[in-house]
Structure formats: structure tokens, C-alpha cells
Amino acid sequence: MKIRIYNARILPMTEEKAGHFQIVEGEIQIIEDKIAYVGPSEIAPSGCGSTGKEQSASGADDKWDREIDAQGNLILPGFKNAHTHSGMTFLRSYADDLPLLDWLNKQVFPMEAKLTPEDVYLFSKLAVLEYLTSGITANFDMYLTPDTMAQASKDLGFRTVICGAVNDFVQSVPEMEKWYKTYNQFDPLISYQLGFHAEYTTSKPVLEDIAALAKDLKAPVYMHNSESCSETEQCIDRTGMTPTAYLDSLGMFAHGGGGFHCIHMTEEDLEIFKERGLYVVTNPASNMKLASGIPPLTKMLQMGIPVAIGTDGPASNNCLDMFREMFLVTGLAKLKEKDAAVVDAKEVLYMAAVQGARAIGLADCDSLAPGKQADLIMIDLHQPNMQPLNNLTKNIVYSGSKQNVVMTMIAGKILYEKGEFYVPEDVERLYADVNCRVEELKR
Amino acid sequence: MKIRIYNARILPMTEEKAGHFQIVEGEIQIIEDKIAYVGPSEIAPSGCGSTGKEQSASGADDKWDREIDAQGNLILPGFKNAHTHSGMTFLRSYADDLPLLDWLNKQVFPMEAKLTPEDVYLFSKLAVLEYLTSGITANFDMYLTPDTMAQASKDLGFRTVICGAVNDFVQSVPEMEKWYKTYNQFDPLISYQLGFHAEYTTSKPVLEDIAALAKDLKAPVYMHNSESCSETEQCIDRTGMTPTAYLDSLGMFAHGGGGFHCIHMTEEDLEIFKERGLYVVTNPASNMKLASGIPPLTKMLQMGIPVAIGTDGPASNNCLDMFREMFLVTGLAKLKEKDAAVVDAKEVLYMAAVQGARAIGLADCDSLAPGKQADLIMIDLHQPNMQPLNNLTKNIVYSGSKQNVVMTMIAGKILYEKGEFYVPEDVERLYADVNCRVEELKR
Fold it and tell me: What are the residue boundaries of the Amidohydrolase-related domain, all occurrences included (chains A, B) (predicted)?
């Protein structure tokens, strides 16, 4: 497919760091799965309707499969959901308003124990639809059954980096090694990174095996890290070290990686993140809803630690909405520091679109430039919450909403446009199947 | 107009307090500006298309102007935005990421000084459009020029309660008395309540005049209250009392009223709110973005103090989105108390829909029952963030979004449906006018 989107404002986000993002007025051209051109239109389109005869700037002169008049709307790189558990959609609004341990032990774990791989396939597809509505073009998905997680994303055309979920109860290190090799060759949309659930659910011999595998594969490793105060304190009681320091002492971070949540972090923890080039993936809505706390984001950014954003799973959040997360990232930082000036909108947008990609091994999806993957979204500026056009970055981060997402494109394919899904799936049937299966699981 | 919406799930919210809201499966009938019937459909509609010949339950047997198949979607009372400054849309994304005093003194006040009444008319209309997209059916609007605020809402068919904004610099008590009489007779959609900006901007003689007027009119009084720590401390320095205690000592609350923000509240302040029947209007997004703090909401609810929700103005928030506010109300309370169980979804939905109406004198808009005003919204459940249907109240509060609002009806008129506005306004022209005027104001 060759697609040309003209009459657009484009935020390529190719700057090396968050700053004043340059807006390009013109067009973006997509050939197959890649971006071919971003820049001014050499010959302006003739009025509102396209004649299909305009000379394109890249010289690919005719035969566009589709020419889209963006009507001045904004194109930017898609958001990357850098930490989620997609298959947990079945628990949305099932268990909430409970203390954390009751929630996990009485509601989440007993229900998860009943799940089949086919359930994960079904429930992951529901999550993918929601990602598309929120302009999320890739996720970093930690859940139970990589086979059906990969299949769900592949079948819908969604980009997924599967994260290992080893602990003492599910998944083994040899399985993870096999999956690493399988799912880094499976499909261009699918990749795999090493990961384990958390220090507190994974015994030392298993952690040592993971560290050895990471060294062998020269691969980064990801895990939940310092999400709750008690988890951190218990690790210190057991090992004399914080989770970050303990994992580092095992050689876990020889080739980088990252931590999800990272709320209860010491100065030394942050130094390790900085030194090892580890990514913090912050999950603000989940951290509020489970009363976990507020991470020291201002400090992290001051130290140059890269930060990405994740929704966490739909059982704890409960929605998969990057707009809500973006507002919360800055709002919680401002509250924590009692300073309305910290963590500004540019930093947050950079986390959501650019750093999210780099955090999970998708550097070719981080920005809009020729040769990069065509993972992009269109934001409708013709809505009251986007007016006036004082500052588009601030409009997105402070007043943006899923409702503004009028197109989500992944690898050059439009999967969502003006409220309609263009995926090989009967969406109403999927909703019915999900509800039917949820009722069975509740019995 | 006679409108019948059938095949609906309806949340009438007629319960006396937040609890397990009963869902009615059936239809709602609207005749002119009022609800005529809520209940089961006596004769089910014949399939997807309506023949127009179904016998209605209320006996109003034919001649519906419109019959709408809700397709199983959810109807509930509209949200009430119980504190806002609509005319400030022009400052959206203009001044952010600044310390509070810089923001006010260097950005907000100099720009506001240039505003004409016609500007307020223009910018208020932009806000009204945004309210409609978020399912907000009424606002409590504190801003500069009541005449053009009232006209903007009346012209678009929106319901506005204007709040007096007296302080030592703008608006006088005699003006407020005149407006109170004028705008409580002006139009069924418009009403007026006494109010002043805040204790720290209003000198004692003016406050005494307001208290006297409130007693004379037997009217409640509303104001910003204890939004920032310094404001509260300075009041104590000046008067020996907190803002709440000081205003109460002047007899301000003889006939009730309420406070906006109410963050830095003492035990005694809460006792006064309880005793006087005052409403707390909480503004969580603004309180985060300006780093103002988190109110003691759990305590307020335990004491039985009624709580409503407002967005505050678009200069501080920056959006006018009740879904974001609802999530933040509970999320911030959970963080503050370090307890995931506090302020559950039912409480929050009750604040947004029911208490918001009662807080601002719109008791006939608080719920869906025969004789009440037909101020209601339809939530699309056929979207991935609303699935599965484990719990509709939680789905709305924890994962709902403006995108789910597929209809907003005020006084029996549909003003917004499936992304389109049905108001006597060229929306694109309005956006252009707003941008044009904003550029002039910036010069």
C-alpha cells in the first residue's frame, strides 16, 4: 500500500531529547510498512477533494492507493504502552476498591488460575482494540501465554513486544529462552524481551539463571520493581539490599533493561538505573488506584534516566488510555514536588511516543522519518478540547482524549479510523464472546 | 418534542444516597423538557428498526417525534460541572508549567484585563461545546460578565447556573443583587447564585454586605475556599481564623452554599460544613496541575458532607472532562489515604451526576424520574473500554471516556449525538473566531 496524507500538521519528534518539537506543515508518505517522506507538499493539493494527480515530493508520482486530506489535523508517532497485561481485560471492573492483598489473593489469582491459552487470545484481542482507540501502536505485554498473545496481536495487525513473565509459579527460564528465539523470528509485528515478574516472586536460583541467559543473549531484562513499600522493605530484610541493588548484584543488568513502577527508589537505586542505562516505565493510574504511591520522576529526569509510560493491566487501571496516563504523569509529579513547573508537557509526550519505543527495543518506531516504521496517529484538532491552537503539545497532554484519535496506523496499515476498526474481526461478536466467557469464569 | 429511547439500560439514580444503583432495562420517554416515563417497555420494539407503532408504556400512544433504539446502551443523568470558569478557554495551553503566582500574575491576569463581554460570549460557547462532548449537562460558572455568559448558554441550549464572582476588583454587591433577580427570571435554562471569588481577594465590608444580601434573599453563597496552603495561613494571620471559620463568623452561611477546592481544611472547618449543610466542590485535575494538594475527601464523606465535582477553568485544568475528574476524585483519595478501598466508584458517580445538581440549586435535574428535567446522556457500551459488562458503574468511573458519550440531552433537546453538535452555531467558524481573537489578545 502507498498512502499519502496531505494538508497535515506533522510532529516528527526526531529531536534527540524533549524540547520544542518542530511542527512540519505538509504531508507524510507511507510505502508499505515504512515512512517514505515527511515534509512540505511540493504541489499543494487542489482544494478539498484530491484529484489523485498531484506530484508527490518523493517522486513516487502516481498510483497512490489512498490519498487522505488531513484537514490540518496533527500526525505524530503512535504512543507506546510500555507496560501492560493485556489478557487481564476480563477482570475489568470485577475487583476494585479493595486493599491490594485482598485484590490479588481473593479476586485476581483465583480467576487467573482458570484461564486457558484461548482465553488469553480472546481477552488480549479486546485490549488491542482499546489500544487502537487511544492511539497506542505498540505494547510491552507481560502475561501468561506468549503463544496466544503473539497470535492475537498478529491476527489484528498490532505490534507487540512480549515480555517474559517468569517467576517461581509460572514460566521457566528454558521456556523463556525458547520463546525469545521463537518470537523474535515469528512475525515482523512481534518481538520478545527477557523478563520476570518481580524479585519477590522469583527465587535466587531462578534469578541467577535469568541473569546468565541475559549475558548469553546480550539481552536486556525487565521486571516489576519497587511498586509497593512492603515489597521493598521485605527485600531489604531478606537480602540486605533494595530490589534494584539486589538484582544488580546478581548481574541482571549487564545489557540493560528496565523496571515497571519504580516508586520506592533510593538514591542508590537511581544511580544504578543511570549507570546501567535502565528505563523506568511509570504507571500512574495503576499506582493511584492501588494506592501504591508516586515515583520520584522529577529526580529521575534530572539525572537523565530515560522514562517511558505504561497503563499497567486493565484489572488495576482499569482502562488502557494513554491520554489519562500522560496527564497523570505530570500531575502526580507536580503534586509530589508541590511545584506546578516540574515535568512539563514536552517531556511527557516524549516519554509516551519516543522513549516508550526505545525502552522496549522498537527504536525504528520512535519517530516519523524516512525509513522508520509507519506507526502513527492522527489527532483531530477540530474538536473543542483542542481549541484554541495555542500550543499543540500542551493541548495533547493536558486536554487530549481518546476522542481526538481519528486514525491509528501500524506498519503502514490503518487499523482504526473515525471510530471504526479495520481489523479482521467481528467486534460485536468479540464483545459477546468475552462476556460469555467471563460469566463462565465467574461460576 | 416527544422522544422515546427504547432498548436501553437506564440508571435513574433516584436512590437517596450512593449505593448499588438499580439498572432499569426498558425505555425512557421525554415530553418537551421533562421526563415522562422510565421503566420497562410494555411492548418490545419489533426488531432493530422502529415501526413507530409500538404502544408506549405511558399511554402516549403515537406521534413520537423521534424513537431511538439505544441498542442496549446506558442512559444516566448528565454530569454537572459544579465549578468552572468557562470563559477561560482562551488561555488553554497558553500558560502552564509555571509556579502558581507566576501563572496568575504574569499570564492570567494581564490577559483577562483585555477581555470584552463579547470575548466572554465567544470563549464560553467554546467551553459549552466541550461540556457537551463530556456528558456535562449543566455548569456552575464563575466568571466576569454574567450578561454574555447567560446569553452564550441560552443561545446554545445549555443549562448554566451563574455564580457571583464579587471581589475587591470586579463585580459589586449591588450588581450581584441585580443579576440575582435578572438571571433567575431570564430563561428556564439560566439561574443565578450568590458568590464571591475568595476570602483573600474580598475585604471585610464587602463580605459583610454579601452575608447581609444572602440573609435578605435567603440564598446560599459559594466561593473558592482553602485552595492553597498559603491562602489559609494568611487568613489565620489576618483574622485568627481559617477561611471557613472566618466566613461563618460573618454569618455567610445562614442559608447554606458551598466551597470550591476545600483542600486545606481543619476538623473545625469540616464541622462547620457539616452543620451548615455546605457542599464541597472538589476539583482534582486543577489541584494536581497547580500542585495545590489533595482534599480530605474520605473524611468528608464519612462525616456526611455532600461532595460535588468541578473541572475548574480550562486555564488550570486544561480540559473540561468529567471522566478525567471522576477517576482523579477516587484515585487521589486512595493515594492520600494509602488505601485502595476508599471513595468507591458509586460514590464518585453519585457526586458527578446527583450531588452536582443539588449543590448548585438544580434539584430537578438530579436523577431520571417522571417530572424531572430531561438532562441525560447515553454511554456507548459497544466500545472496548466498556467491555466486559462486569459492573457498569465501575466501567464509567474507572475506564470511561468522553468517547463513550454518544448523546447529550438538555431539557429534552439533543444537543450532541454521535460526535455531531446540534446547536445553532457553525462550529468551525467558532473555532476560527476563537483563534483569531486569541491572536489579537496575545499582541
Answer: 75-415
Three cell numbers written together for B381: 457500551
In contact, A400 and A326? CB cutoff 8 Å? yes
**Residue A382 contacts residue B431 (beta carbons within 8 Å):** yes
Residue-by-residue DSSP string for B102-125 = HIIIIIIHHHHTT--HHHHHHHHH
* A34: closest CA of chain B, how far (Å): 28
CA B148, CA B162: separation in Å to the nearest integer? 11
The model's pLDDT over B317-330, given as tens digits with 9 standing for 90+, comes to: 899 999 999 999 99
ipTM value, please give it.
0.95
Q: Is A302 exposed, middle or buried (0-12, 13-18, 19+ CB in 10 A)?
A: exposed
DSSP annotation string for A113-178: TT--HHHHHHHHHHHHHHHHHTTEEEEEE--S-HHHHHHHHHHHT-EEEEE--B-SSS--HHHHHH
Q: How would you class A46 by CB atoms within 10 Å of its CB: exposed for 0-12, middle for 13-18, buried for 19 or more? A: exposed
Q: What is the three-class DSSP state of A101?
A: helix
C-alpha closest to that of B194 among B247, B115, B265, B137: B247
* Cβ–Cβ under 8 Å, residues B378 and B11: no
Domain A79-362: homologous superfamily in CATH = Metal-dependent hydrolases (3.20.20.140)
Contacts of B394 in chain A (CB under 8 A): 92-93, 96, 318
Query: Shortest Cα distance from B408 to chain A (angstroms)?
Result: 15
Is A332 in Cβ contact with B289 (below 8 Å)? no
Task: Give the three-class secondary structure for A102.
Answer: helix
The model's pLDDT over B76-89, given as tens digits with 9 standing for 90+, comes to: 999 999 999 999 99
Q: Which of B89, B108, B229, B318 to mutate to test the interface with A (most CBs of A within 10 A)?
A: B318
Q: CA–CA separation, A252 vs A263, rounded Å? A: 20
CATH of domain A2-77+365-421: 2.30.40.10
Q: Which helix or strand (DSSP H or E) is residue A299 part of?
A: helix A297-303
CA–CA separation, B141 and B160 (whole Å): 7
* Mean of pLDDT values over A251-274: 98
B105 confidence band (pLDDT: 50, 70, 90): confident
Say if the Cβ atoms of B388 and A334 lie within 8 Å. no
What percent of chain A is helix, strand and coil (3-state, nearest 5)?
Answer: 40, 20, 40
User: Which three cell numbers mark A37?
Assistant: 517522506
C-alpha neighbours within 13 Å on the C-beta side of residue A213: 23
Q: What is the pLDDT of residue B427?
A: 98
Distance in angstroms (rounded) separating the CA atoms of residues B230 and B234:
6
Look at A99 and B389 and tell me if their CB atoms are within 8 Å: no
CA neighbor of A263 nearest in space, from A205, A333, A189 = A333
Correct CATH for B79-364 of 3.30.70.100, 3.40.50.970, 3.20.20.140, 3.30.70.3340 = 3.20.20.140
Hey, do A2-77+365-421 and A79-362 end up sharing a CATH topology, with the first three levels equal?
no
Helices (H) and strands (E) counted in chain A, each on its own, are: 16, 17
Contacts of A212-215 spanning 24+ positions with Cβ under 8 A? A213/A173, A213/A176, A213/A177, A214/A252, A214/A254, A214/A255, A214/A257, A215/A251, A215/A254, A215/A255
In this complex, which of B93, B390, B395 lies closest to A395 when CB atoms are compared?
B93
Measured at the CA of A138, the angle between CA A132 and CA A140, to 5 degrees, comes to: 125
Of the candidates A317, A342, A431, which has its C-beta nearest B387's C-beta? A431
Omega before B388 within 30 of 0, i.e. cis: yes
Q: Which of B90, B288, B337 comes nearest A334 by C-beta?
A: B288
B184 preceded by a cis bond (ω within 30 of 0):
no
